[in-house]
Amino acid sequence: MNAILQKWQFEAHLDGTSVILPDGCRDLIRVVDEHCVPTWHYSVLQETVVQVTVSKGARMVGYRLRPGVVVDQELLCSIEDGGDVSESDIDASAKADGAAIEGAEALAQAGSVLEAARACGVSERTLRRVMRSATGKSPAFWLRLGRVRRAALHMAQPLAEVAAGFGFSDQAHMTRECQHWFGVTPRKLRESQELQEQLYYPALATGEQISTR
User: Fold this and answer.
1) What's the CA gap between 205 and 176, in Å, rounded?
2) Per residue in 37-79, pLDDT tens?
3) What's the confidence (pLDDT) of residue 78?
4) Strand locations in the chain (E)
5) Could you say which of 37, 40, 103, 142 would form a disulfide bridge with 79 (CB–CB 3.0 to 4.6 Å)?
């Protein structure tokens, strides 16, 4: 399986700040600044929104990795030392844990850790161990993030119905989760074209389906 979910590019035409939503993916990003100096960044698994400041003229090429995929330390050391790497280098060095990839997607679609474990054909204890070991995050992280991202695609509907349909205890619970992960209320989320567009990028639970099944 290809470890890279998507290759993307961006060029800043103005100085500005962008808000990045949690999506269950890590990205390797090559940034060339206005002085043509390249640097690499390895993003974290976000638990809330991150604001990224970019300068006019900056160019970025990013490699979005599938949930459950990590890059080996040798490649990270190479880019930290100023080395340059290709897409094939990234794909070859990325560790695609099939069980973790399947577990992340199952959790993102499930109503409980037990339900996800059964979908994967493993015990709940095994799923917890696999996800923590491979991703550094608990199953609850993947369960909650997946649920709120799926619900976010339906915010144009009556919010009480969305909350009930996606397993939140009530609308207030969904609002708290939305504010925790996205930094805004459901109403603000559905009013923001920029944030809505992000929800359809290839990522966990929304956009491109990434299940190994």
Assistant:
1) 19
2) 888 889 999 999 999 998 898 899 999 999 988 888 888 888 7
3) 80
4) 4-11, 16-20, 27-32, 38-42, 50-54, 59-65, 69-71, 94-96
5) 40
Tokens linked to 132: 């923590």
- Other C-beta atoms lying within 10 Å of the C-beta of residue 171: 16
End-to-end CA distance of the chain: 12
Instruction: Specify whether the CB–CB gap between 176 and 184 falls below 8 A.
Output: no
2's tokens: 């290809």
Phi then psi for residue 6, to 5 deg, are -160, 140
CB 126 within 8 A of CB 117: yes
| Torsion sign over Cα 98, 100, 101, 107 | positive
